[in-house]
TrEMBL record, chain A:
Name by which UniProt lists this protein: rRNA 2'-O-methyltransferase fibrillarin
Family, per entry: Belongs to the methyltransferase superfamily. Fibrillarin family.
Catalytic reaction list: L-glutaminyl-[histone H2A] + S-adenosyl-L-methionine = N(5)-methyl-L-glutaminyl-[histone H2A] + S-adenosyl-L-homocysteine + H(+)
Stored PANTHER family: FIBRILLARIN, RRNA 2-O-METHYLTRANSFERASE FIBRILLARIN
Keyword vocabulary terms for this entry: Methyltransferase, Nucleus, Ribonucleoprotein, RNA-binding, rRNA processing, S-adenosyl-L-methionine, Transferase
Stored Gene3D superfamilies: Phosphorylase Kinase, domain 1, Vaccinia Virus protein VP39
Cellular component terms per the entry's GO annotation: box C/D methylation guide snoRNP complex; small-subunit processome
Biological processes annotated in GO: box C/D sno(s)RNA 3'-end processing
Subcellular location: Nucleus, Nucleolus
Major location (coarse): nucleus
Pfam families reported in the protein's UniProt record: Fibrillarin
From TrEMBL, chain B:
Top-rank lineage group of the source organism: Eukaryota
GO BP field: rRNA processing
Biological role stated in the UniProt entry: Involved in nucleolar processing of pre-18S ribosomal RNA.
One Pfam entry name: Utp11
Keywords linked to the UniProt accession: Nucleus, rRNA processing
Protein name per UniProt: U3 small nucleolar RNA-associated protein 11
Quaternary structure and partners: Component of the ribosomal small subunit (SSU) processome.
Amino acid sequence: MKGGAKVVVEPHRHEGVFIARGKEDALCTLNSSPGKAVYGEKLISVEAPPSEDGTTSKIEYRVWNPFRSKLAAAILGGVDGIHIVPGAKVLYLGAAAGTTVSHVADIVGPSGCVYAVEFAHRPGRDLINMAKSRTNVIPIIEDARHPLKYRMLVGMVDTVFADVAQPDQARIVALNSHYFLKNGGHCVISIKASCVDSTASPEAVFAQEVSKLKTENFKPKEQVTLEPYERDHAVVIALYRPPKKSKSKD
Amino acid sequence: MSSLRNAVKRVEHKERAQPASRRKLGLLEKHKDYVLRARNYGKKRDRMQALKLKAAMKNPDEFYFAMHRKKTEGGVHVLDGAETLPHDVVQLLKTQDLGYVSTHRSADERKAAKLRESLHMLEAGPRNKHTIFFDSEKEAKEFDVAKHFDTVPELADRAFNRPRKDTLEKAQVTGATNRRQLKKVLKKRDASYSELMQRLERAEKMKKAEVHLEAQRKVMNSKGTKRKVQEAKDGRPAVYRWKKERSR
């Protein structure tokens, strides 16, 4: 490229996530299959700092659109921790066509693993196609309400991410967590207020979902609403079966 | 004093109503009615005089360019283009307007979505609500943003990216090194942001226009008796209700 790179990439609070500032003003992740875009997103290529022997290489990032992904919107909303880090194992409920899953797969990297559950066949096909180029994604075309059906495929996971937009979402997440989530693991749930209860106010719906999680042995840590990217959406992050506090302090 | 004045007999009122015997002639004109009539008469007389004078002093060679377009028919000045279009033509034109507006609205929305793919409104400042749950009141009281997020105080308000302290130490910013070139690029980015905002704003306006046109068309096309149940307000068109009628 003439005149060098025209973009600055700064590391984000969450490992594996970056912010590109240049012609674009964008959240992005490292592209694990360079040169290929998954769903037509923009690719940003930057020269890596030269290594000790003086050779330079290119690093490629993929733009992560917060208007399409609830997780991206939550990250830009300023969540403390997404609990999706390099090497983590993630159970992703409601994977759809795998657009967000591809970014999660980029974050967890080759040592991590993403179990992507989607019930509908049509988006499931795209999900499987995406998984062909990302070997750390395990696509599962099953109903998330019946975790027993895919118990043979999924091991213990560190984090459960759910974006299922169903009225009984909290129950679905709890059911899956009881099977697959390790003690002290986290769940990250995206809640669409109108999907749970279209008559109540969004704040009331979020509070109701948080209290449902509490009854299922989750301890809520934080909640962010997703303005300006989505209206009446929130992402709730909770700790599963928190470790007992030691009483040595007393 | 006023009681004394009341005691003195006052002047009799000179104006009377129409006597009963002359009732068939109508109401009797009073002085104040006469004043109104006289003023009106005087005004009309003066105006007529002024117009007559003007007509007498007319310059036959006077010319205005507007005269090319205007004409008289039998000495009477007629206006061009004052005739109304037929109902079905108006209907057709409204349909075409609606088509035009909706095409351009969808084009604007599509282009805005394309721009938004890589413009994530990072600097716009947080517009959302971030709730953090604590075990006790004491923890909530002692809450400090920078400490909680493990970052430096300067970056505590930067919701879209609050790097941890060790990230700041270890990781480094990569990419462009040419400051002047980067400045140019950032200028381009600002231009794209302004385009995005303008497109969104225009799409919003056209959406409103579309709703109005659609409402007008429905009212025009409708048969049967209708009643307005709600006036137009807040940029929304009026709401009509039609009388229910059996179709056969």
